[in-house]
Sequence to fold (296 residues):
Amino acid sequence: MIGHLLDGKQFASNLRGKVAGHVAELTRTHGITPGLAVVLVGEDPASQVYVRSKGKQTLEVGMASFEHKLDAGTSEAALLALIDRLNADPAVHGILVQLPLPSHLDSDLVINRISPAKDVDGFHISNVGLLGTGQKAMVPCTPLGCLMLLRDHHGSLSGLHAVVVGRSNIVGKPMAQLLLGDSCTITIAHSRTNNLPEICRQADILVAAVGRPEMIPGDWIKPGATVIDVGINRVERDGKTKLVGDVEFGSAAAVAGAITPVPGGVGPMTIACLLANTLTATCRAHGLPEPEGLTA
Ligand code: NDP
Fold:
């Protein structure tokens, strides 16, 4: 390993500490406690783990946590009615519907029912449009976390060539928008991209958000580049389940100037940014100044 390790675990812990400080101040001076409602439909084991973790960390920073666990057969009408109630509840500043939803539910319809001001995942079409046009939006948590790590490491990102591999609405596209907002030159790659290794080798910043274990080896990376590995993949190694990213860490770390590990890189940033977004939403809802450095 010669590259600098971008320690998302430590950064996320500092960010949660900062959020907790602002929450305490908000409660002391204004009597406001930010509240985050998380809605889980069904029993997907990974989703249950995420929701538990979100609830725990929400309480740890001094926010109120409202968990709504609905059974897998919940009707669309019942789910939309719950969202309407949460939209109208002044104790709830942020609403997150855990994805994926069971297949009989229309995710777009459900997400777009959330009030944009409470859409702390940043997936509502209004927030997507605001981000795309460079206006004040709620920004999706995972790309926001990546941006924070990049800004912390580089200071200015202006003029750097960023290659984002993956074009999902959750990670790839908003990541590209955020980097464009910071004046990077952007290439977005995907499964139909020709000459992917060549394109990756041009990147000053390489963001991998693909979902394919260790797909990107060190010889696709320009020496000194910064590598952000969003991938979380479970693989079997020596009879054990191990988490690996989309980047082959060993060979990549030998070439990169800086790199996020998996686990302990982007992963912990996602929930920390969810909490930061909930604080931002609370300040906006009450017309209070937003703490600096919590959003894009
Ligand atoms: P999606 O499956 O929605 O998107 C994957 C993207 O990768 C698609 O755009 C797809 O292209 C592209 N892709 C697939 N195969 C290739 C290939 N061989 N070459 C180039 N591009 C390819 O995944 P997500 O964006 O939701 O997630 C990506 C990864 O990030 C996953 O491992 C996921 O677990 C992880 N993740 C981590 C989070 C965290 O908190 N750290 C949060 C969210 C996701 P196409 O569009 O052409 O199909």
